[in-house]
C-alpha cells in the first residue's frame, strides 16, 4: 500500500517534470518564431521604403521636365 502511494507520487512528479520541460521548449520555440517574424517584417518594410525611394529618385527629373510653360500674352 505504501509502495503504491510512492509509485503514484513518482508518476505524478515525472508527469509534472515532463510538462515543465514541454512548457520551456514551447516558450523557447515561440520566442524564436516571434523574433524571426519581427525580423522578416522589418526587412519587408525596409525593402518597401527602398523601392519607393528609388522610384521617387528616378521619376523626379522626369517631373521637372513635365512642368507646363507659362503662356506669354
Question: What is the N-to-C succession of helices and strands?
Answer: H
Q: How many strand units?
A: 0
Q: In angstroms, what is the radius of gyration?
A: 32 Å
Q: Strand percentage, roughly?
A: under 5%
Determine the N-to-C terminus distance.
Answer: 114 Å
Q: What characteristic shape results from the CA principal axes?
A: rod-shaped
Structural class: mainly alpha
The number of distinct helices, counting runs of at least 4 residues, comes to 1
Mean pLDDT: 91
Helical residue percent? over 70%
Detail the poorly predicted runs.
none
Q: What is the makeup of the main sheet?
A: none
What report would you give on this structure?
Keywords: Membrane, Transmembrane, Transmembrane helix. The chain crosses the membrane at residues 44-65. 88% of the residues lie in helices and 0% in strands. With 73 residues, the protein is an all-alpha fold. The mean pLDDT is 91.
Summarize it:
With 73 residues, this protein is mainly α. It is built from one helix and no strands. Helices cover 88% and strands 0% of the residues.
Give keywords.
mainly alpha; transmembrane; transmembrane helix; membrane; 73 residues
Produce the secondary structure layout.
Blueprint: H1 2-65
